[in-house]
Amino acid sequence: MRVKDFDYYLPEELIAQRPLPRRDMSRLMVLDRHSGKIDHRIFKEVIDYFQPGDCLVLNDTRVIPARLIGRKMNTGGKIEFVLLKRLDRDRWEVLVKPGKRARTGRKFVFGEGELTAEVLESTPAGGRIVRFEYDGVFEQLLDRLGNVPLPPYIREELEDAERYQTVYSREKGSAAAPTAGLHFTGDLLDKIEKKGVKLVYITLHVGLGTFRPVKTDMVEDHRMHSEYYRIEKSAAAVINSVIEKKGKVFAAGTTACRTLETVSRDDGRVNEGEGWTDIFIYPGYRFKVVDALITNFHLPESTLIMLVSAFAGRDKIMEAYSAAVREKYRFFSFGDAMLIV
User: Fold this and answer.
1) How many C-beta atoms lie closer than 10 Å to residue 207's C-beta?
2) Of 103, 119, 145, which closes a domain?
């Protein structure tokens, strides 16, 4: 399967640069993955597609201020770190820019010197393993010195950093937001729950590998980045109860979807647990748990458009994306949403 089969034309002006004033007033494209029928709605109307006894699975990860701007020790050359993965107490995998300055053994300083880092090695993906040195609590330093890293296609400064967090975010650890969840408000979630729908929270810390382009020619040759997930015993029990009673499992975003499919069993139920997942879902994959998927519109040739193509079928997704361009939907992180049922 060729990566270029997942390309599509997107005018740059359709890439949303800022969120709408109201989260739940984004547009919502509803795609019936069986018939291919498309409806155009407003996101708050997503409640119409739930039935009592269903469950909505939400990723409660919270984006950390993972972007650090510092300088090379001694020479003062500017460096940018984006924290990707904590390996132990003081060692992290990071993205660096410019990479040529971050050679093994070099040291960098952040703030007024209260945080320093030494490059230990390079990674196969082009990142670096670094060790931080500091006095005090690392998380407190990060809150003071770091910034929330926005995707590279967003060129405007975000006035309110909370708009790049879901209203239910609580578990710190992501380098990027689970953007399908940005459309929910507390009021909308309350209404969905009052309809008899179970709200289930799981965790997957999103890495920036989500935004990395697929560099192989063939889909099957791509290797996914790994991300930490956790699903509590109580959450697994609720999901399994819904499945046993023939309710539908709605996944809020590709991160929730990937987590559910990671912990799925052959009988269509899920296990509790935590660990690292590098599951790669593309056409041909057989979904075991997810019945409906809420998602945003994704980058061409990305692993995310491959995942939704696996769920709905490539041809139906490409037709839906063409319709979204014609109808001038807003794309990517701060853009509009799609419900695939």
Assistant:
1) 24
2) 145
B/e letters for 61-79, b = 16+ CB within 10 Å, e = fewer, are bbbbbbbbebeebeeeeeb
Q: Do 195 and 212 belong together in one domain?
A: yes
The answer to whether the beta carbons of residues 92 and 66 sit under 8 Å apart is: no
Residue at which a domain ends, from 145, 179, 209: 145
Q: Is there a contact between 231 and 259 (Cβ–Cβ < 8 Å)?
A: yes
In the block, tokens 């924290």 appear at 83
CATH of the domain at 92: 2.40.10.240
Same domain, 174 and 267: yes
Residue 130 and residue 250 in one domain: no
Cβ neighbors of 97 (< 8 A, separation 6 or more) are 79, 80
Does residue 98 have a cis peptide bond before it, meaning omega lies within 30 degrees of 0?
yes
Query: CB–CB of 132/126 below 8 Å?
Result: no
Mark whether 17 and 110 lie in a shared domain.
Answer: no
262 and 188 part of one domain: yes
Same-domain status, 297 and 282: yes
Q: How does pLDDT run along the chain (341 residues), one tens digit per residue?
A: 999 999 999 999 999 999 999 999 999 999 999 999 999 999 999 999 999 999 999 999 999 999 999 999 988 899 999 998 889 999 999 999 998 999 999 999 999 999 999 999 999 878 999 999 999 999 999 999 999 988 889 998 898 999 999 999 999 999 999 999 999 999 999 999 999 999 999 999 998 666 677 989 999 999 898 899 999 999 999 999 999 999 999 999 999 999 999 999 999 999 999 999 999 999 999 999 999 999 999 999 999 999 999 999 999 999 999 999 999 999 999 999 999 99
12 vs 333: CA distance, rounded Å: 14
Nearest to 200, CA basis, from 20, 60, 12: 60
